[in-house]
Amino acid sequence: MFATLALTICVAVLVFDQQWLVLPNLPLVVIGAALGIFVSFRTNSAYDRWWEGRKLWGRLVNTSRHFSTQVASYLQHADPAARSRLVHRQIAYVHTLRALLRRQDPFTDEHVLRSIPDDVESLRGQTNLTHALLQRHTDDLVALCANAPGGVGEFRLQNFDQSIAHLLDIQGGCERIKNTPMPRGYGFIAQRLTIAYAMLFPMGIVQHLGWATIPMNVLVCLAFALISEAGRVLEDPFTMFWNGLPLNALSLTIEGNLRQRLGETELVPVPQADEKYGVLM
Fold first, then answer.
1. Consecutive H or E run containing 163
2. Which of 36, 73, 170, 198: CA 20 to 30 A from 152?
3. Cα-Cα-Cα-Cα dihedral of 132, 136, 142, 146, to 10°?
């Protein structure tokens, strides 16, 4: 399209001498600068969403590690089965959040099913599965506190409660990004303005560049289009597209870290980046 528009102007001016189509450079410079700022603003806003998603998952890694450390240290005299249940449920929570953010079914996810095989059926029908898992965390911890000594004291229960509150904050931030797309007007206006600029730009440079106007128009306008497209693909950091965050690798990293706190050694290997494309999912 950009080449066709430029070709049309070149033929009209250079072949048929339609000089009325020639425009001064100054207005096009101003319009180009404004368009560049507009499409860059959208891309920067989309990147902020992508980076916020990565920071939230970084917090999820740290909070999950801290939670498992609390379980291993605070409950070292409690029932080993209770410690194992809490840690494995936290692993299931991470995998469930990953599946939900990617619009996948957590009840068919092998990592979720492996972590809480006895609780899966009882969780069906929950409107917010991750919240339900955290509720069971709290129920177990309150029960352990009630059965002290040997369980959780009131002070330690408060620390556990803070960790669960942090997990809810992280989950809420991820859900906000996933469920709030950027206004469609950003992409629509950027696309239409780029097309309009592709019609006007050749009129300003055709007398200076001649037939070279065609590749120049393609290069300049394609740059605007690609900047806008970069914003579109970064808008949702939780997709399975190549630009999405590597949630599989992050989830399995958390799982390995947490299971080692229980002394387990048979861990699921963390996936590596694809050798050909360098993509890590």
1. helix 154-179
2. 170
3. 140
